[in-house]
Amino acid sequence: MNINLACQRFVSNLLKRNGNSFFSEDNIRFYWFEAMLNQDPDLNNYSLEEPYVKVAGNKELDLMYEGMNEILCFEIKFHRNGSNKSEFPHTMSAGEVINDIFRLPQWAKVRVNKPIRKFLLYVTDKEMHDYLSYKKTNVFSSQHYRNELKKFYDMAQNVTTSLNFNNVNAPKTFLSSATTSIGTIGITNLSLLFKGDYSLNNIHLKGSECHIRLYEIK
Question: pTM here?
Fold first, then answer.
């Protein structure tokens, strides 16, 4: 499976989406699934919502692909504020993304001896793009916390980066959301494989913006 080709097809198709068409996380999942399916149409190689065997609480992996030589695991997250609500749950949403990142290393497949690669596909509009880029300042936010989120969101491509959420004085809402799966977050390594910031005139996306990131968790 060529991840770069999948990214290119995913973006190409997503940017053709009709301006009035509804946007949901399931839509994003289907577009990504189709991009992979275009390379390998054998449905036996895919599974959706397969349970994590090492994580409590009935957590499920969004998409798993098993090829001849490796297994690819994907969590897919989509945030939007198409209604332009003034009160958007920024800290909870940021926690959801970090929760996926720290849960992914727990994925394991029983009785399989192949390399397992783990990815987070994140798509958002102007709302969370501005928050994660640290464009919306808040005097009540910890600078260390906001800088760590910015480092995650704006990291250079194809360079392994260490995220450290120890002692960042993060908001309680963020911590509650970020620790849902494994009860704690600390340090992890990841790299940004793909980054795209696009204009997409859709009524369900704030600012007619579509921002796409694909990370690999090490």
Answer: 0.93
